[in-house]
Amino acid sequence: MCGIVGYTGPRAAGQVLLDGLRRLEYRGYDSAGIALVTDDGDLFVEKRAGKVAVLRDAMGGDPPRAGIGLGHTRWATHGRPSDLNAHPHSDCTGRITVVHNGIVENFSELRDELTAGGHVLASETDTEVVAHLVEDAYRGDLADAVRAALGRLEGAYALVVMHRDEPERLVGARLNAPLIVGLGEGESFVASDAAALVAYTKQVIFLADGDVADLRPGSAVITDRAGTVVERPVDVIPWSAEAAEKGGYPHFMLKEIHEQPAALRSAMAGRVRGETICLEEIDSIRDRLTGIGRVELIACGTAYYASLVGASLLQEWLGVPARANVASEFRYSPPPLDARTLVVAVTQSGETADTIAAARLARERGATVIAVTNTVGSAITRESDAQVFLQAGPEVAVAATKTFVTQVVTLVMLAAEIAQHLGRRTQAEEAELVGALRALPEQAERAIELAAATEEMASRYADAAGFMYIGRAFGYPAALEGALKIKEISYLHAEGYAAGELKHGPISLLDADVPLVAVATRSSVYDKLISNLMEGRARDARVIAVATEGDARIESMATDVCFVPDTLEPLSTILAVIPLQLFAYHVAVARGRDVDQPRNLAKSVTVE
Ligand code: AGP
Question: Which one of 134, 240, 269, 349 has the minimum C-beta count within 10 Å?
Fold first, then answer.
């Protein structure tokens, strides 16, 4: 939520910021703004409600020449999206500017205190108090003033602060919100994530909670909040700037759907070896896995649906209870958590506040936490005992696609690896799974080809009043995810339901205007699913079936069929979701929606 970027060095800072904001826009797009200390020594601020393009146009595409500045793209929490509430925010003197991602929870008290002290606060935001706190604390050294102000803040923040009178210096700080430093030749960057700076440098420092980064061109000094210098390693970003571009596709979402075969290959690279699966990332916690009595998966949204697949397999293969939990609810009714509990936190961004809070609670109670994430250096990597990365490359579209399929395949590998470690799977079972995994990327390519018809289909379904998605067993998470994709990007209501539940209530929603989308791939529950599909047909609903290639029966029962290749049941979720992603994409395009940046959403949800 919210993207922030800062630059100090010889380049034209305004262009670096606008470029960075464009790449960070998936984090929030309610408003955008930049502040620069121009080469003439003036503070220049421009901020607008709306997207980065609106901001760029407001400046005629050409900000004034400056070597330092900071920028922000916002997902609104406190204060509606408007020019006034857009970041950066300034102090009373107009010399200090601040951009912020997070929530200052005690902003109301601070605001009253600052106002009583004579400060004039112009916006409705929580962030503005930070500028005024820094103003009060400023004695000629910006880093000291920021550290002093941080002591007053409760909540979460990634902040970057600039002072007009120290025109080569930026100060960044983080607590429970992401912030990284980029190091170039004679220049320094700071940003919410690597996408904003990878075009300029791949050398980065992932700041830890409590860090304060004092940046000047080509140098970064990291301290804690007391001012003591701390050492942080310099990491190298493993992907290129091109990976975060559209590469000829009209939308990132379509590009990322087509990247799924490659993403699956990458997720399995080095892990599917010979006839076995080997996740070296869990070597350090193998001893603790031996006594595991239960497994709890925690995740939100798409990652939660992927976790449903993981939970089924962990339970079946390990022979212990395993459950997928919505992370935001986990804390209100936590299961018994102790040293015999394994918790698997699944999060693409690694920054989802609900998932991090749940992982923290689990660890406090003695559980072992494995993070399954796409983001090296993210917050969840510090809240876990072992990390397994998706290796899916950057995902820019707000609607998750390639990270869903790589989450599922990674959880399948994780379940198999732990079961193997505990001696609960035979070599023959392992070899069968490995064979199916090896075939999967090519089958995903085939599923994409077979789903070409979804474009024409979408034009016939784009005016539906809503959709009902159903599935059983491994088809159920695919149905949930398919429904979420439609909701997110087309703004049509869709329900994802366990097919057996249809007759217990939601079947009353079905009619000629509410199509039924049934995940009816070959499986042990195929016949039961077909009965549910027929119940929908009997209510005049148009039926879209996702079925296995070679299923001759299905065409007579459904209005439209999307075929996918055959695979093992635990992997069927991955192939079944592909036509559902493409169908949602084409419905959204047919409805003229903003596919990559749907309204009200942000990709990385760093508030609870
Ligand atoms: C999926 O399309 C959504 N963007 C959303 O449900 C997402 O999966 C959820 O917010 C969790 O994000 P995370 O994987 O980064 O934790």
Answer: 269
> What distance in Å separates the CA atoms of residue 558 and residue 549, rounded to the nearest whole number?
14
What beta strand segments (E) does 366-515 contain?
368-373, 386-389, 467-471, 494-498
603 catalytic? Reply is: yes
Q: How many CB atoms lie within 10 A of CB 121?
A: 18
Asked if residue 356 has its Cβ within 6 Å of ligand 1, the reply is no
The residue nearest atom 16 of ligand 1, judged by CA position, is 347
Q: What is the DSSP letter of 390?
A: -
Match 């760029």 to its residue by tokens.
Answer: 56
Ligand 1: atom nearest CA of 604 is 15
Of all atoms in ligand 1, which is nearest to the CA of residue 348? 14
Per-residue model confidence (pLDDT) at position 393: 87
Lowest mean pLDDT of 78-87, 328-337, 553-562, 571-580, name the range.
78-87
Nearest CA to ligand 1 atom 5: 301
Could you tell me if the CB of 390 is within 6 A of ligand 1? no
Q: Is the beta carbon of 420 within 6 A of some atom in ligand 1?
A: no
Q: Is the CB of 605 under 6 A from ligand 1?
A: yes
| CA–CA dist 429, 569 (Å, integer) | 13
Find tokens 């990132």 and name the residue.
252
Ligand 1 pocket: which of 326, 352, 481 to mutate (most atoms within 8 A of CB): 352
DSSP sequence for 98-147: EEEEEEETTHHHHHHHHHHTT----SS-STHHHHHHHHHH-SS-HHHHHH
Residue 270's contacts (CB-CB under 8 Å, 6 or more residues apart) are none
pLDDT digits (tens, 9 = 90+) for 64-102: 999 999 999 987 777 788 888 899 999 999 999 999 998
Give dist(CA 322, CA 309) in Å, integer.
11
Is the torsion defined by CA of 151, 153, 156, 157 positive or negative? negative
pLDDT at 27 over 90: no
The pLDDT tens digits of the residues spanning 153-199 come to 998 899 999 999 999 999 999 998 889 999 999 999 999 988 899 99
CB count, 10 Å around CB of 139? Answer: 7
Dist. CA 390 → ligand 1 center (Å): 14
Dist CA 511 CA 543 (whole Å): 11
- Pocket flag, ligand 1, residue 399 (CB < 6 Å): yes
Say whether 92 is catalytic. no
pLDDT tens digits, one per residue of 434-456: 999 999 999 999 999 999 999 99
Q: Using CB atoms within 10 A of its CB, is residue 527 exposed (0-12), middle (13-18) or buried (19+)?
A: exposed
Q: Calculate the dihedral angle through the C-alpha atoms of 141, 142, 145, 151, rounding to the nearest 10 degrees.
A: -140
